[in-house]
Please model this.
Amino acid sequence: MPLAAALHNRWPDAKIHWLVNAPYADVLSAHPAIDTVIPFDRKGMGATSKKLNPLPVIRFLRSLRKANYDITIDAQGLLRSGLFTWATRAKRRIGYADARELGWLGLNSRVRIPQDTHTVDRMMALLEPLQINDDKPDLRLYCAHDAVATVKADAEFGHPYVVLAPTSLWEAKRWPIERFAELAKRIAESGLHIVVIGAPGEEDQCSPLLKLAEAGLPVIDRVGKTSIGTMMAIIERSQAVVANDSAALHMAVGFDRPIVALFGPTRTQLVGPYKKDEAVIQHIEPGDPMDHKHAESGQAMMRRIAVDEVWDALNLSLEQFLSNCSERPCH
Model:
């Protein structure tokens, strides 16, 4: 998002198109700097390719060339995105000099950026060949009107609530679900409701937490039950978000929500919530392997995070948020 905002600020009359994996189009659709979202049916085209039918991919690549782009920026840096960049035949094709999977082959303007640079700053550095220097990246996200209307019309969201995002694809990144459940009890005792979010197929990860609703606690289950756009609207209207290393956490940053970020084997200086170091809870000990694929060691790191410190951090972030709201309008 900072790339789109910076480009729009530099050239307000330019047309900015964004190519994205189709399921995530909702993240971009309402952004005022983006004129057109180009959904790429990764799953569908992958299936046809396996059937030795390359025509859908060829047609897609041809459509990129027909758009006659002046500049293409590959902010992902993989073989597939490099291929799309090359297919545009844009006069300037900008990306990472160290793009993985030989993704740099599709570029004619390769930017060298230190590997120890935060992902947001790495992406912003791609604008240097265009003489765009923005030292305050604009991470703001925007919700589609229909998603906001859906949440506003849902009576379950009529009370102030905290969003809990307890899931992760990687077991090593999950704070114990029983501790999320204990945190939810404390949140309920404080008078706030709890909304639990997650992707389809992650219901089992949340089971002990969701069962609290059966005991009468104000827990709203939205695991696998919302679109990405609706999830964004839920987060935008929340009082705070407590999350593992996940998309929900970075969405909360984009909506300037108070966050408590629970991290295990992740290098937060590279991919943590941008400029939100004070919101991160992480306990690294000498010899810890920073490998999210190593479940046992990652889980050991996550278990070092106590419920008390998460609860204290949540209260502090809410106090600071409400204090700021007294000085400026807040959602």
Q: What stands out?
A: The chain has 13 helices and eleven strands. The chain has two domains: 2-130, 145-325. Residues 307-325 form the longest helix (19 residues). The mean pLDDT is 92.
